[in-house]
Amino acid sequence: MATLAQARTRTETARASGFLRSRLGSFLAVFPLAVWTVNHLWNNLAAFRGASEWEAAVTQYPHPIAQLATAVVVLLPLVLHSVWGIGRLLTSRPNNVKYTYYGNLKYMLQRLTAVGVLLFLGAHLWLAMLQPRFTQGGPEPFSDIAHEMHFHLPTLVVYLLGTLGVAYHLANGLGSFAMGWGVVTSQRALNKLDWIVIPLFLILLAMAWGAIYALYRAGAA
Ligand code: HEM
């Protein structure tokens, strides 16, 4: 029979590993996921400069190793963060009916956009990254994605809504990351956090919708 001391040690160990998992899920959301996402949106703005500029910025890699490294550095943290996120979704419930505070609304939207982003990234990774490589032996050409964006309404709507979800999830997520890691602690600083989160949300949204607009416009040609 386990002694009281052994039982206590087991509880402490479980608590410590739960804490580490939670820290890792949170950390990976920012390094490298958020950093890479901002860079990816920026690269997509090359759509304003035409096909070859966009393809060089978004779909071409200087070396196959660089492509493999990107896949590992981005996709592995995405999977780990998603597993962590799904765990959080299953173990916490929004309480917006009981508490109608602004903070509760942001918490509920963070979880709602998590589900939307999960579905969007599943479709985006398959259709824009994997399928063209499996079926055409290479990345999706600019002309194909621009044509889809202009003439296939579901593609346009999914990209507009999916990137809206990503912009909110990332901007608000950086706010809760700053609280969770003790970057922001005082009530005064917490109140001011929205002055960073809201402009960041608008900038990310402008970058994403700007790139979509450039692809849509190019698709008409
Ligand atoms: C572009 C991809 C993604 C980025 C950049 C991203 C970024 C972030 C950031 C920065 C946070 C805040 C972390 C913290 O509070 O310490 C967060 C939270 C969260 N993410 Fe993501 N995320 C992404 C995709 C996903 C996906 C696919 C899911 C799938 C379910 C997900 C689920 C969650 C959940 C549930 C939370 C809230 C956790 C909590 O506060 O309890 N995320 N995300």
Model description:
The protein is mostly helical. The protein has eight helices and no strands. The protein has one domain: Fumarate reductase/succinate dehydrogenase, transmembrane subunit (3 helical TM bundles of succinate and fumarate reductases). The chain is globular and about 70 Å long. The structure holds protoporphyrin IX containing FE. Protoporphyrin IX containing FE is lined by residues 26, 29-30, 33-34, 37, 81-82, 85-86, 88-89, 110-111, 114, 117-118, 121, 166, 169-170, 173-174, 176-177, 180.
Quaternary structure state of the chains depicted: single chain
How large is the share of residues in beta strands? under 5%
Give the helix level as a range of percent.
over 70%
Low-pLDDT residue spans: none
Roughly what is the average pLDDT, rounded to an integer?
A: 93
Shape: globular
The radius of gyration computed from the alpha-carbon positions, rounded to a whole number of angstroms, is 20 Å
Structural class: mainly alpha
Structural domain tally: 1
Please tally the helical runs, counting DSSP H or I stretches of 4 or more residues: 8
Distance between the termini: 76 Å
Q: What is the third-level CATH name, the topology? A: 3 helical TM bundles of succinate and fumarate reductases
For CATH, the homologous superfamily is named as: Fumarate reductase/succinate dehydrogenase, transmembrane subunit
Biggest sheet, open or closed, and with what strands and sense? none
Give the class-level CATH name. Mainly Alpha
Order of helices and strands: HHHHHHHH
Number of strands: 0
At CATH level 2, the architecture is Up-down Bundle
